[in-house]
Fold this sequence. Notes:
The protein is of the alpha/beta class. It has a single domain (9-120), classed as Rossmann fold, CATH 3.40.50.2300. The protein is built from 4 helices and 7 strands, in the order βαβαβββαββα. Helix 1 (17-29) crosses helix 4 (108-120) and helix 2 (41-50) packs parallel to helix 3. The mean pLDDT is 89.
Amino acid sequence: MTPPPAHWRVLVIEDEALVAMLVEDALLDAGFGVIGPARSVSEALALLAREEPAAAVLDLNLGGETSLAVADALVARGVPFVVATGYGPAGLPAAHRHVPVLPKPYDPADLTAALEKLCAGR
């Protein structure tokens, strides 16, 4: 597999430190650039205001706070994303049901494959 171009920078939005580190390591190993990780909605929105990610990995629940505002901001900016959640697709509102979902726990290879697919058209 060809590594993704360096301009494929991925915004990681994950509140669990260990999971965030594992995601970051998997992305870096696959050749992606990493923005974050953001551990709260406010941190994710601040990073999104400053950065131009090619894609994002979004946890639905950030410390008990829903991250749907971040999902809405990603859609508004045209940034494709994958939702990594223990809730499955049923946890997404109808407006975001088209978004790929990786049920936790997931294989890092599944994450990088999903992101490669999302970034391929960018």
